[in-house]
Amino acid sequence: MDTLSIKPAQDRHHGISGSRLLSMHPTVRALVGEASLRLTVLDGGADGALDAEVSWAHSSDLSDPTPFLDPGQVLLTTGTQFAAEGDHHDAYVERLTARGVAALGFGTEVVTAGTPEALVRACATRGLPLFEVPYDVPFIAIARFVADRVAAAEHARDAWALGAMRSISFAALRPEGLDATLAELARQLDLSVLLFDASGAVTHGESEGGPALAASHRSDIGAEAARLLRRGQRSSSTMHLDGTTVTLQTIGRRSELRGALAVVGERDLDASDQTVVTSVVALVGVALEQGRILSRARSAVRSAAVRALLDGRADLAAAVLAELGERVAEGEVIVARVQPGDGTTADSRAANAAVLDAWIDDGRVLIGTPQRIRAAAGALVHDGARIGVSAPTRLPDLPRAHREAGAALAAATAASPVVHAGELGSRGVDWLLERPGSRDIAAAVLRPIAHDAALLASLEAWLEANGQTDPAARRLGVHRHTLRARISTIEQLIGRDLSSFAARTEAWIALRATAED
């Protein structure tokens, strides 16, 4: 009977990283190549079959042992099941290959002298590696060889996982802790790592050491990350994309997810890999939470500095902003007050770092050069915000510019989301009366005479005559004494002295409001 020569086991490790090589289970090639066992390979099976990893060695002479076998195991038999008449070898080997058995070992000189030729042919046909076990080599020796090496491999994987987590923990202590943590994870796994924020946007790309990702894969991975984040629950998933395996895990507490981590490569993660990834998910979760808290603290300090600016305390504001590494732009600046859109949160900031951006009460204030503010305003309007913009000014006049921006914001509408303070002067009193509540407030001035048409007409004619009685009386067709008496009555009823310019202005605006009712 011909036998096969086996190439050295180390040939199969070409292209495998060191951390993976040290932790691999024994292969069929390593088993049959063990000199102390004196095993003889009768058929090497299909291409690459000898390089399959072996998880266990099990002996059985059942005609169908597959219910008791797992994929990746080596089966040892003495052939008792073949003693009955009839050729059962093909069906027997077919069952083994369907179950995923890694190899078959036949013990000689127990039932038959040598290995049956029919069994050799069946294994060759099905691509199942077949080796012969000498009579004086007990099956337990083969099982012990496999068990010892499986235990050693698992111990090596545990040791690797501990070492990897230690290296990742040290990386997390660096100033750029989050970046260093993800880079070290990618290096330890020799895979790509992607980090998504809570909105599903990529904040950290794959490592230089990991395989490059196709654009279509990035899109598919991003869509899956967004799906997990929308669920709002801690979860994970595994994707297979054209030979690429993607493992995703969400980061953060339920209903407070901070993002998702994706590990991408050409292999599935084993238990040790998963342990390391889970530890990194915890570290990244802490880092993101700390970053969020720090961001809120910086935002509060920035808001206090901007309040100081708007109160005219520029020196104090500059000192506080310097501690944050920020400053107000030099030269002419403008102030924008923003009513945020539905999708804006207190943690969001203007994309341009040259714009001083702070939350004041329930609104948002931007301070920067006209060019920078226009760019920031364009992005905010896209998110549904309404914005009021002051005229250009310098730091000492920021309090006035803030008030101008507030007046402009009050004039902003969905149709005109950005209003500049310089536009307001051309809109007139009628526009002011269109503001919410303005018409009711103005009309209240004349409410005591609202139902007396003669008094209202007399007041209007008198005000249009600039408070001169004779021209107004002629226009009305009444005696001047009658008009004076009516004006006196109006003053008493509305509680205002119409000899003052302010009172006459209020009365005229109230007439405009009443005329539109």
Automatic annotation (TrEMBL):
Domain PucR C-terminal helix-turn-helix: 455-513
Domain Purine catabolism PurC-like: 38-148
Database matches in InterPro entries: CdaR-like_regulators (IPR051448), PucR_C-HTH_dom (IPR025736), PucR_C-HTH_sf (IPR042070), PucR_dom (IPR012914)
Protein name: PucR family transcriptional regulator
Originating organism: Labedella populi
High-level lineage: Bacteria, Bacillati, Actinomycetota, Actinomycetes, Micrococcales
